[in-house]
## 1
Amino acid sequence: LSLLNDLELAIGGNQLTVHYQPQIELQTGQVIAVEALVRWPLPDGQLIPPDQFIPLAEQSGLIIELGEWLLDTVCKQIATWRDQGLGGLRVAINVSMVQFNHDGLIDLLAEALRRYLIPPELIEVEITESVAMRKPEDVIARIDQLKRLGVQVAIDDFGTGFSSLAYLQRLKADRLKIDRAFIRDMGTGETSIAEMVINLGHKLGIRVLAEGVEFPAQAAILRSLGCDEAQGYLYAKPAPAELLTLWLQE
Ligand code: G
Ligand code: G
Ligand code: G
Ligand code: MN
Ligand code: NA
């Protein structure tokens, strides 16, 4: 309860922070986007990872307030990058089940885009495969609303759930993110799931990004399998915007 109270104060007091992790186009090595990942800094400088407070925020409903704060912060950052000559960098934001189902989601996004004059295609909404599969008709309707607004949609942690081909075709997602468990398995020669997801995505006209790429050998295999994009420690860890800006300007 006290943690929840502290989290509410941290959100209201603008004490949370966002780290950004680049997403790389495998053929060119170009940075095409970044994923926003929230962190909670303690007074001693230690960072609490999202795993330790997002579930609590989700259960309590505080995730709505956190999501509003995150979207405003991300849009402000996109405007800053535009002013620094780094325009065109898309930012992927994680949206939990409660946020995705919340009635205010579309208005919230539209309002933030308008406030900072941001082209909608520079925002991507990530939902996990398990959220995407919960109530098929509702999810399809919500993704249609997001697409009409012009934002992109990614299915996160893909491969861990049980999406059917027919359902996936109706979802109209822009991107599948192969769960990093399957990228880790590539170290033992097990590439079949990654290969299957890449082929599935391409059959349906959906781009495919590999998560958790840590070694050049994984990137090489993914490139040979035709995977479009990658994200992971091989390229960069999630970092504060200022560090990422320096890295991008190199
Ligand atoms: O770096 P990593 O520990 O950042 O992230 C752990 C998990 O926390 C990820 O699975 C991610 O989906 C989730 N997460 C990170 N930032 C956010 C956020 O702003 N909102 C939501 N809903 N989840 C987030
Ligand atoms: O939203 P999602 O669950 O995909 O969040 C991505 C998570 O993966 C974050 O916790 C992020 O810090 C973490 N991550 C990003 N790149 C790597 C990587 O190369 N290896 C590992 N082990 N974790 C990573
Ligand atoms: O320092 P860290 O463990 O986050 O670095 C992970 C990888 O990300 C490095 O091997 C490097 O390829 C890349 N990286 C991190 N920081 C920078 C940077 O400031 N400039 C460049 N060019 N690459 C970086
Ligand atoms: Mn994610
Ligand atoms: Na993921």
Note: The mean pLDDT is 95.
## 2
Amino acid sequence: REANVGLIGLGTMGSALALNIAEKGFNLAVTTLHPDRVDEFLTGAGELAENLIGAKSAEEMVAALTPPRSLILLVPAGPAVDAIVETYAPLLSPGDTIIDAGNANFHNTRKRAEELAARGLNFVGMGVSGGEEGARNGPSIMVGGAKESYVPLRPVIEAIAAKFEGDPCADWLGPDGAGHFVKTVHNGIEYADMQMIAEVYGLLRDGEGAAPTDVGTLFESWNAGKLNSFLMEISAEILQANDDATGKPVVDVIMDKAGQKGTGRWTVIEALSLGQSASTIEAAVGARGWSADREARATGENLFPGDAGKCEFDRTDLADALLAARIIAYAQGFQVLTAASEEYEWGIDMARVAEIWRAGCIIRSALLDDISDAFRSDLPDGRLLFAPAFHDALTKGTDAMRRIVSTAILQGLPVPAFSAALAWFDSMRQARGTTNMVQAQRDFFGAHSFERLDQPGSHHGPWAQKNS
Ligand code: 6PG
């Protein structure tokens, strides 16, 4: 018996993906960095073990696969990927493909693709979203690499992916690092959306003294409407869950210190490198960073105690503001994707990205169908932010956001992502900005020159002679 595909790494995501592949009827060879876990996994797989071949070494794995071989890696991003590539590359034959399905930095994927191409091997960077549940029952899959390497993979990937009205939420999006870049930006948007939901929770908790369950039922009602999304759904559930040990709402016993593995930060770094600023994502990454500084925050609270006064937030305003902020976060994410696609000549189809995010992934939401339609129609200046379909929601939602953000600010309640969303929106609807002043300053102290509104060319201000 030979396998169509091999999978290395039987951690949470690897195991779930392996069972998903086996369940769809493909023969899959599996191995892990700890070969003793292979038997354990096969036993736990039950009837699905019929489609699984356990390999205890790299040689066994390669021998179990029918060429051209496809080898999926689900191991922690970084050195583990390089180590496996080094072990397997000499054993593989030209035309074989290594698929990195972890959350890799796309720069590494580009490097690995180039190195392996020189050895006649394909390297595919594949973003997989949806957590453990998604990996087991249908994730969203973002593939990048040589287009021809997707041909043998496609039937497997489409079979295991989530479906939106029958359409597999998986596709080849571009060469080399395109798939991992799209996944990185997906995670960046995920950070922003999570932060915005957390900010609403914070306003209700600290501004109104609302109980978690009440916020949970509010979120549940929002999830039934235009704010419908996976993150809204789980937030509603989280807020209504009680801790087993204490019986308290579980959110009340969880430490306010957020972790991060890097994808949100990479989105921000890449955005800045591309001359963009995904400010809502940046706010979310920053908020996680500040959250880690827990002791200092306690000192700060003692030194600058907040106003204990309560305030109220209109529920419709909150919902409208959250929807507009979510549109803004997506618009910023897609702008980073557009800039990267141009820079690296990936030719990413933005409408298709939105389509494959409609199911399976963590940021799946009712908005994504409208976003893919928007990308397939004429967008003013090519900007998602200006899509006619979102005009009313943005007009209404940013008005609501002004009321929410100003109340929060007056009350001393931090809303970094909402504030960032509003600042960007207002900047993007101001034809005459204020960087004429910055240009003048640059010219004044550094003779950097500026462009004029009324004449072509580069110019200096009247201070030029005085300064010389
Ligand atoms: C997904 C998630 C997944 C994972 C991230 C979260 O799309 O399924 O984004 O990739 O949960 O690693 O990243 P942080 O640990 O940085 O929050």
Note: Residues 103, 129-131, 187, 190, 259-261, 263-264, 361-362 surround 6-phosphogluconic acid (CB under 6 Å).
